[in-house]
Design a protein that fits this description.
Length: 54
């Protein structure tokens, strides 16, 4: 019984590590790229935003 609990705990830890790695790996570089792209993108005038109807 103890062995099954240890195996489940190990599998849970591995799952958490995989999720953590995929969430935050390379995030700083990607956010910097998006920020630079948003600064270079032209902005719409306020009238154009109001004229768009859903």
């Amino acid at each position: 019984m103890l062995l099954i609990l240890l195996e489940a705990l190990g599998a849970g830890c591995i799952l958490v590590l995989i999720v953590w790695w995929t969430m935050f790996s390379g995030r700083a570089q990607t956010e910097a790229t998006h920020k630079a792209a948003n600064q270079q993108a032209p902005t719409l005038p306020e009238t154009a935003e109001r004229d768009i109807q859903p």
